[in-house]
């Protein structure tokens, strides 16, 4: 009897195969990187045009959830859009209930809760994405990762998707505590450039600061990739 | 309440309902009870008879000063012209860092402040951080707006301390939420405001503030028949709250203040002493 066709069935060795397969989808997704610095968090993600006719500029893979909260992902694009919209709504709903901005802890827990919901009921499949959520909590920068099983964990720096292991090794070697925004930005770009297939048009970068998010435009990314290429 | 919406047939009932409630609504927090709305307009308590309408029969006050917040309340409960209790506790200890005062319907205040306490605790356990005073008061406002016009009677103050300092909010059953430095609520509030507004300064010391609170409540209990009993005083500071006075009898206060003013209660005697 196969235990992997239904979500709500455990296998004899305690695995939920559908969730594992969802994580497989994530592993095949495009690479994304998150680096936590002293006063900012950097999110970087690879974007790929499916054909030359597609305008890569219009692909936005870093979602802004609130004025100082952003999310990126690896995996199925459409699932990310839905999850981001739900989380955006939850940010605003929190403000109506409580007047304060939600902390990134709360939002990360909420996102992972949404993902967990779909690992426990029939008729629906898990979200095929792992997300990186970057924001501030009590004025401290934090980076969270969630995955299709609904797990949520905090990271200093991490990466998801294809070549995630290679990037993580690179980050392990070069990340240190208290990175300034500029250094964190260079680190993220370097990490991405090692694995991104070709050119600078295929990277999207975002800097999350205490009160705002800075999405680097095309020229800024190009400049940054040039500087990074010169460093070694 | 079961929702017999035909479009939910064939789908797991719990999935559909939870999904709708949690994700797609920008609504205020939903209260656990069914809301009864009268078709004739706002529900009136006490039959609307002004004479017996002691629904706000109380005096509570709170003010912000340099040492934090002072809350002072009376302790009388009346049902029409019947005095049901002289020892009510009108300051509700929500948790170690939040206090609520009761005015209006005792049942409503007690229940909803306990509900708020429950919610604050759940939030703290789930999220690892405490709810701020602004957030707690906003949450309560959200609930009360859901019950607007259905007959709730509450005029309470939420006072507490959080990372940004000590804050005082006034919340009532109309869904009004005000942040302020001085509030007094209840039938005796006008008398209390008279004393409070006269002597209030931000830079009162703790002793002076306690004295002011006690005096204001005393004067309100003296002139308002629906207020009386004992004065209870609480002080909110950055480490939480302290109960300063558990109950000073207003009758004792009457004689103490009268003596200070040189009054002995008998017009003729006073005249004799003067001349």
Automatic annotation (TrEMBL), chain A:
Domain (Proteasome alpha-type subunits): residue spans on this chain: 3-25
Keyword Cell wall biogenesis/degradation listed: no
Subcellular location, principal: cytoplasm
InterPro entries on file: Proteasome_alpha, Proteasome_alpha-type, Proteasome_asu_N, Proteasome_sua/b
Protein name, entry field: Proteasome alpha-type subunits domain-containing protein
Cellular localisation: Cytoplasm
Endpoints of the signal sequence: none
Similarity section: Belongs to the peptidase T1A family.
CC terms in the record's Gene Ontology section: cytoplasm; proteasome core complex, alpha-subunit complex
Organism: Paramecium primaurelia
Protein origin, superkingdom: Eukaryota
UniProt GO BP: ubiquitin-dependent protein catabolic process
Swiss-Prot/TrEMBL keywords: Cytoplasm, Proteasome
PROSITE patterns: PROTEASOME_ALPHA_2
One Pfam family linked to the record: Proteasome_A_N
TrEMBL record, chain B:
Keywords of this entry: Cytoplasm, Nucleus, Proteasome, Zymogen
Superkingdom in the source lineage: Eukaryota
InterPro entries: Proteasome_bsu_CS, Proteasome_sua/b, Proteasome_suB-type
A single cellular component GO annotation: cytoplasm
GO biological process, alphabetically ordered: proteolysis involved in protein catabolic process
Compartments (UniProt record): Cytoplasm; Nucleus
Major localisation: cytoplasm
Database matches in PROSITE patterns: PROTEASOME_BETA_1 (PS00854), PROTEASOME_BETA_2 (PS51476)
Extent of the signal sequence: none
Subunit-level organization: Component of the proteasome complex.
Function, in words: Component of the proteasome, a multicatalytic proteinase complex which is characterized by its ability to cleave peptides with Arg, Phe, Tyr, Leu, and Glu adjacent to the leaving group at neutral or slightly basic pH. The proteasome has an ATP-dependent proteolytic activity.
Family: Belongs to the peptidase T1B family.
Protein name: Proteasome subunit beta
Natural source organism: Paramecium octaurelia
């Amino acid at each position: 009897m196969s235990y992997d066709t239904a979500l709500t069935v455990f296998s004899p060795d305690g695995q939920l195969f559908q969730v594992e397969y969802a994580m497989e989808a994530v592993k095949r997704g495009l690479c994304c990187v998150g680096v936590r610095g002293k006063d900012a968090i950097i999110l970087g993600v690879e974007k790929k045009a499916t054909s030359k006719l597609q305008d890569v500029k219009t692909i936005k893979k870093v979602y802004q959830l609130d004025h100082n909260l952003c999310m990126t992902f690896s995996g199925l694009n459409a699932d990310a859009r839905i999850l981001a919209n739900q989380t955006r709504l939850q940010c605003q709903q929190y403000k109506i209930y409580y007047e304060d901005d939600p902390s990134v802890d709360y939002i990360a827990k909420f996102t992972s809760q949404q993902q967990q919901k779909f690992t426990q009921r029939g008729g629906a499949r898990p979200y095929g994405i792992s997300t990186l959520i970057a924001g501030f909590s009590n004025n401290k920068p934090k980076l969270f990762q969630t995955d299709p099983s609904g797990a949520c964990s905090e990271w200093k720096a991490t990466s998801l998707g294809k070549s995630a292991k290679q990037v993580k090794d690179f980050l392990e070697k070069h990340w240190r505590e208290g990175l300034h925004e500029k250094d964190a930005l260079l680190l993220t770009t370097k990490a991405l450039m090692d694995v991104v297939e070709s050119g600078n048009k295929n990277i999207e970068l975002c800097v999350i600061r205490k009160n705002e998010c800075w999405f680097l435009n095309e020229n800024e990314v190009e400049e940054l990739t040039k500087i990074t290429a010169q460093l070694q | 309440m079961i929702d017999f919406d035909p479009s939910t047939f064939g789908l797991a009932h719990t999935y559909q309902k939870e999904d709708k409630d949690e994700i797609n609504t920008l609504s205020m927090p939903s209260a656990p009870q069914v809301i009864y709305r009268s078709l004739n307009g706002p529900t009136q308590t006490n039959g609307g008879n002004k004479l017996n309408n002691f629904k706000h029969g109380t005096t509570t006050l709170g003010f912000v000063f340099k040492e934090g917040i002072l809350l002072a309340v009376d302790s009388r409960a009346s049902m029409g012209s019947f005095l049901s209790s002289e020892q009510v506790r009108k300051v509700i200890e929500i948790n170690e860092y939040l206090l609520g005062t009761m005015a209006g319907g005792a049942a409503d205040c007690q229940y909803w402040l306990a509900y708020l306490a429950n919610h604050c605790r759940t939030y703290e356990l789930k999220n690892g951080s405490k709810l701020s005073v602004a957030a707690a008061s906003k949450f309560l406002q959200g609930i009360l707006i859901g019950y607007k016009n259905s007959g709730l009677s509450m005029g309470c103050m939420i006072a507490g301390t959080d990372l940004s300092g000590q804050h005082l909010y006034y919340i009532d059953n109309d869904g009004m939420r005000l942040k302020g430095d001085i509030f007094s609520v209840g039938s005796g509030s006008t008398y209390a405001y008279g004393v409070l507004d006269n002597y209030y300064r931000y830079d009162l010391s703790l002793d002076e503030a306690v004295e002011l609170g006690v005096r204001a409540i005393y004067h309100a209990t003296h002139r308002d028949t629906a207020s009386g009993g004992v004065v209870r005083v609480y002080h909110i500071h950055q480490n939480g709250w302290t109960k300063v006075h558990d109950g000073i009898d207003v009758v004792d206060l009457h004689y103490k203040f009268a003596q200070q003013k040189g009054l002995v209660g008998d017009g003729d005697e006073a005249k004799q002493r003067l001349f």
